[in-house]
Structure to design on (581 residues):
C-alpha cells in the first residue's frame, strides 16, 4: 500500500525520460493511515537517502504538512515521530502516480503500483 | 581458555550448517572459530565460544541447531569419556551440593536398550550429585550421546551392535534450539496464500538467516512471487520490499493481496514495506545504496520461467497501444514479455545487487546447477569488482541441485545500475570465456540432463 517512503524511491523509468521524472505526482489518491512500529535507527539511517523536498511535497499533497521544509540539524524525538508517521504510516491504497515529464500514468490498485512499461517505452 | 560447547545439529541441509552459524555469529558480532576438520556428516560438533550467551544466541536463531550443551567430555569409549569428565570437574563441581538434576542417554543411528541406558547413567555416580533427581523440572539436565555409524541399507537385529559406537559425548544442557520450531510455524501448507513456486519453510528460514535480517534493516526481493522469503525475513524484524513482473503472483484472487494476507497471519504485515509490479530489468529505483540485503529465488524455468519486458524474436511488428487505448474486455494493458535466460539473469542480479546494496550488504539467492557439469568457476564467473562470495551451499537433488549463494558487497564505492543487456550467443559469435553449467538450465532439465545434446530437438 504505497507508503510515502516508497513514493520517494520511485522515479519514472520510461526510455529517454531522464529529467524532471521525479517525484511522481499523486493523482486521485485514496489514503489510509495504519500504525507501524517505530525504529529510530532505521529512520536515522534512511534520512540521507531521502529526497527531502519531494517527501515534503508528497506529504502536503495527501494533506499532511507536519514536516519542516528542511531537515533540521537536531533530530529530536518529536521530529523523528513525525517523520515516522509520514514515511511509514500514510498509505496510498488506490489512485495513480503520474510522471511530471512524460505524463506516464502508473496506476495503484489495492496498494500495488503497476510500474510496468509499454513496449514503445522500453530501451 | 574459551568455553567449549557441544552442538547437536539436525541432520538436514548439512551444506548450509556452517554458513548459517557464521552468519548468525556475524549478525551478533562475536567470534566463531570453525575447526578445519569439522565433519558435517556428523550431527555433533564441539565449538569454542567466548561466552555462554553466544551459544544461546546461536541456539535461538539457527534453524539447523537442535540443542546446545556445555561441553564436559568426549571419548571413543566410556573409559575415555569418564577419565576426561573427571578432569573437567571444575566445570560441573558447582552443581554437586544442591542442584536438582536429570540424566539422559541418547543414541544417534541406534536405539539404546532401557537396561543399558540405566547402566550408563549409574556409571556417572562418581560425580556425586547430592541434589534431588527431578525428571520433570530439573535445574540441570545432563546429556550423554552415543554416535553410531550409519547402517542404512543393511539388515540387522534390533540393538545389534549396541555399545559399538563411534564416539560418545557428554555435557550439560544449555538451551534447546528454539528456531527449529519455526519450520512448523511457516509451513507452506498452513499458509493463507501460496503458489506452486513457493519456497519450503526450512529453506526460506535459512535464506533469511543468510541475509542477517534484523530490526531496522531493509531487504528487497526482486522476484517476490508469492512472497515465501518475505515472511521469514520480516519475522526476524527486517522491513521487506517486494517486486515482481507478474502482479497476479503477489495478489492472488481476493481484494487484499495474497502476500499481505499471509503476512498478517504471521503478524508481520507492517514490515512489508511495499509491493510493486515491475520488470527488474526496467526498474524504477531512483537511486542505489538502499538495501541491507537482497534475497530472492529467481525463476529458473522449470515450474516458472523468468520473463522480461520485450517482444519474442520472430514477432517484429510491435503493436503500440494507442492513446486512449480501446479497452476490449475491461482488462488493463499488459505489455508483451520475452524469456529471460538464467545465466544472464544471474549475472545481472549480481550487478543489480552491487548497485542497490549498501556497503557490506548481502545478496542471497538460489542458482540451479547441473551436478555433472558444475564447476566453481560458474559462481566465481558471476562475481564482479566489489562483490565477494561468502557462502555457497548445495541442496542436492541428484542429477541437479540448487546452490544457495551468498555474496557480500565489500566495496564502499557507489556503482551505477546494470545495463541488463542480454548476451547474444549464436554461430559466428566470438567464443565466450566460460559457459556456466546453469546456462539454458530449463532446456537441460527437460532433456533429463543427457550428456550429448545431439538428439535434442532443433
Amino acid at each position: 500500500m504505497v507508503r510515502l517512503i516508497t513514493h520517494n524511491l520511485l522515479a519514472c523509468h520510461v526510455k529517454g525520460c531522464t529529467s524532471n521524472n521525479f517525484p511522481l505526482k499523486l493523482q486521485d489518491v485514496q489514503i489510509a493511515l495504519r500504525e507501524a512500529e517505530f525504529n529510530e535507527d532505521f529512520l536515522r539511517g534512511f534520512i540521507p537517502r531521502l529526497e527531502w523536498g519531494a517527501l515534503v511535497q508528497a506529504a502536503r499533497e495527501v494533506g499532511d504538512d507536519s514536516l519542516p521544509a528542511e531537515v533540521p540539524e537536531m533530530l529530536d524525538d518529536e521530529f523523528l515521530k513525525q517523520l515516522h508517521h509520514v514515511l511509514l504510516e500514510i498509505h496510498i491504497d488506490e489512485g495513480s502516480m503520474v510522471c511530471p515529464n512524460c505524463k506516464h500514468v502508473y496506476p495503484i490498485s489495492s496498494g500495488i503500483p503497476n510500474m510496468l512499461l509499454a513496449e514503445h517505452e522500453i530501451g | 581458555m574459551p568455553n567449549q560447547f557441544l552442538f547437536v545439529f539436525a541432520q538436514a541441509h548439512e551444506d548450509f550448517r556452517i554458513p548459517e552459524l557464521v552468519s548468525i555469529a556475524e549478525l551478533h558480532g562475536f567470534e566463531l572459530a570453525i575447526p578445519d576438520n569439522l565433519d558435517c556428516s556428523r550431527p555433533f560438533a564441539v565449538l569454542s565460544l567466548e561466552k555462554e550467551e553466544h551459544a544461546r544466541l546461536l541456539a535461538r536463531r539457527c534453524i539447523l541447531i537442535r540443542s546446545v550443551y556445555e561441553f564436559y567430555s568426549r571419548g571413543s569409549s566410556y573409559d575415555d569419556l569418564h577419565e576426561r569428565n573427571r578432569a573437567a570437574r571444575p566445570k560441573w563441581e558447582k552443581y554437586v551440593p544442591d542442584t536438582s538434576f536429570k540424566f539422559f542417554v541418547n543414541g544417534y543411528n541406534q536405539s539404546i536398550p532401557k537396561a543399558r541406558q540405566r547402566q550408563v547413567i549409574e556409571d556417572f555416580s562418581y560425580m556425586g550429585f547430592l541434589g534431588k533427581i527431578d525428571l520433570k523440572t530439573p535445574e540441570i539436565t545432563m546429556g550423554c550421546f552415543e554416535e553410531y555409524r550409519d547402517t542404512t541399507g543393511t539388515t540387522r537385529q534390533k540393538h545389534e551392535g549396541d555399545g559399538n559406537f563411534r564416539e560418545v559425548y557428554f555435557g550439560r544442557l544449555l538451551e534447546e534450539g528454539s528456531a527449529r520450531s519455526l519450520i512448523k510455524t511457516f509451513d507452506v501448507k498452513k499458509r493463507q496464500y501460496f503458489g506452486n513456486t513457493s519456497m519450503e519453510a526450512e529453506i526460506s528460514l535459512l535464506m533469511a538467516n543468510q541475509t542477517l535480517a534484523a530490526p531496522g534493516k531493509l531487504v528487497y526481493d526482486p522476484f517476490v512471487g508469492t512472497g515465501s522469503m518475505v515472511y521469514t525475513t520480516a519475522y526476524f524484524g527486517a522491513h521487506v520490499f517486494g517486486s515482481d513482473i507478474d502482479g497476479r503472483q503477489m495478489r492472488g484472487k481476493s481484494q487484499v493481496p495474497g502476500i499481505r494476507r499471509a503476512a498478517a497471519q504471521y503478524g508481520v504485515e507492517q514490515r512489508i514495506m511495499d509491493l510493486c509490479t515491475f520488470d527488474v530489468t526496467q526498474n524504477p529505483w531512483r537511486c542505489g545504496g538502499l538495501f541491507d540485503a537482497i534475497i530472492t529465488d529467481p525463476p529458473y524455468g522449470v515450474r516458472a520461467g523468468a520473463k522480461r519486458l520485450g517482444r519474442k524474436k520472430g514477432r517484429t511488428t510491435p503493436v503500440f497501444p494507442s492513446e486512449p487505448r480501446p479497452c476490449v474486455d475491461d482488462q488493463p494493458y499488459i505489455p508483451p514479455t520475452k524469456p529471460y535466460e538464467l545465466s544472464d539473469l544471474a549475472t545481472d542480479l549480481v550487478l543489480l545487487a552491487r548497485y542497490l546494496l549498501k556497503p557490506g550488504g548481502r545478496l542471497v539467492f538460489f542458482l540451479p546447477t547441473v551436478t555433472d557439469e558444475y564447476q566453481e568457476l560458474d559462481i566465481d564467473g558471476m562475481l564482479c569488482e566489489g562483490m565477494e562470495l561468502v557462502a555457497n551451499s548445495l541442496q542436492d537433488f541428484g542429477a541437479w541441485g540448487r546452490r544457495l549463494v551468498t555474496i557480500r558487497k565489500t566495496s564502499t564505492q557507489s556503482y551505477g545500475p546494470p545495463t541488463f543487456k542480454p548476451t547474444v550467443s549464436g554461430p559466428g559469435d566470438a567464443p565466450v570465456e566460460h559457459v556456466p553449467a546453469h546456462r539454458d538450465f530449463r532446456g537441460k532439465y527437460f532433456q533429463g540432463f543427457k550428456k550429448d545434446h545431439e538428439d535434442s530437438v532443433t
Residues 342-356 of chain B form the longest helix (15 residues). The radius of gyration of chain B is 26 Å. DSSP finds 13 helices and 15 strands in chain B. Chain B has two domains: 3-176, 184-409.
